[in-house]
Amino acid sequence: MKIVLTPFSKGGLQLKNHVVMAPMTRSRALNNLPNALMATYYKQRSEAGLIITEGTSPSPEGLGYSRIPGIFSEAQVEGWRAVTRGVHEGGSKIFLQLMHTGRIAHIANLPEGYQPVGLSTIQAVGEIFTDAEGMQEYSVPVALDIAGINRVIHDFVKAAQNAIQAGFDGVELHGANGYLLEQSLHPQVNNRTDAYGGSIENRSRLTLEIAEKIVAAIGPEKVGIRISPYSQLSDMPPYDEFEVHQTYAYLSSELNRLDIAYIHVSDNPAIPQKTHQAIREAFSNTLFIVTD
Ligand SMILES: Cc1cc2nc3c(=O)[nH]c(=O)nc-3n(C[C@H](O)[C@H](O)[C@H](O)COP(=O)(O)O)c2cc1C
């Protein structure tokens, strides 16, 4: 039998096979609520060993796209319960992807009274769809002050706890594809001069503090993260190759210290072999690699 169809077991991760469904935004969550159509969609895919959901916002200010779901209200937790129930009936595991879009947002997509936020006020170049006003340039983000950073961390932890209440087997932090956590890792998008900007340690701090607090709240075996070193998605400008390498080597070794279940690496564009090797050597639990 092909290995892909055989059970997978490593650390706390036990799956009925090696098939992992990639997270995919579907934009079907009217009013940011998971609904019956989504429950059917995920249940239909429960032959996979592990399903990673579409990016789901931990807070109203992270809802940068129209019709993406959230996991911060009681009604959202209730909606997700129907999804996890159906997937578990199919024998699959399901992790909720926590995606705070940060500056990849337009204010018209956010609920009344909220504004897109970022590590800086640097606006992303490009356009985003809004239901209200069609295609629009990305909004200029409000730079998070320290109280704002603490609020983001708190929102992520609460969202992870909500995910467990909704029946998820774990959460995946979206640290990839140009959203808030990758914005914080990136030296040209994060130009802060406080403890959350500058050195590799400082730029990794937001992601690692969120990961550490979520691990303490729900357990390391229920936490994964997606990263995309060298990706330019969502206006992430290229930066010095050695700096990228060092950033992800450091991040991986700190995540290893937290003993999280997996790192999910987007290998698109192809990551240099030495960076793959550094991640592999630094991190001993499971790696998922997504290639073209
Ligand atoms: C419509 C669409 C929505 C996506 N939504 C997400 C998402 O919510 N979270 C995420 O991490 N990746 C998302 N991705 C990226 C995919 O998970 C995948 O990595 C990417 O499509 C590369 O695989 P491919 O070359 O087979 O398309 C999305 C991709 C597409 C095409």
What is the fold's blueprint, element by element?
Elements: E1 8-10, E2 13-15, E3 20-21, H1 36-44, E4 50-56, H2 74-89, E5 93-98, E6 117-118, E7 127-130, E8 134-137, E9 142-143, H3 146-165, E10 170-175, H4 180-185, H5 200-218, E11 223-227, H6 241-258, E12 262-266, H7 273-282, E13 286-290
Parallel strand pairs: 3-4, 4-5, 5-10, 6-9, 10-11, 11-12, 12-13
Antiparallel strand pairs: 1-2, 7-8
Helix pairs in contact: 1-2, 3-5, 5-6, 6-7
This protein binds flavin mononucleotide.
Quick recap:
With about 290 residues, the protein is an alpha/beta fold. It has helices at about 35-45, 75-90, 145-165, 180-185, 200-220, 240-260, 275-280; strands spanning about 10, 15, 20, 50-55, 95-100, 115-120, 125-130, 135, 140-145, 170-175, 225, 260-265, 285-290.
Strand order, sheet with most strands: 3-4-5-10-11-12-13
Q: What's the rounded overall pLDDT mean?
A: 97
Element pattern in H and E: EEEHEHEEEEEHEHHEHEHE
Count the DSSP helices. Answer: 7
Low-confidence stretches: none
Task: State the secondary-structure class.
Answer: alpha/beta
Largest sheet descriptor: 7 strands, parallel
CATH class: Alpha Beta
CATH topology title: TIM Barrel
Q: Can you list the ligands bound to this structure? A: flavin mononucleotide
Q: Using the 3D structure, state the CATH architecture.
A: Alpha-Beta Barrel
- Name of the CATH homologous superfamily: Aldolase class I
Radius of gyration: 18 Å
Number of domains as seen in the coordinates: 1
Q: How many DSSP-defined strands? A: 13
Q: What is the rounded distance between the termini?
A: 24 Å
User: Which shape, going by the Cα principal axes?
Assistant: globular
Helix content: 25-40%
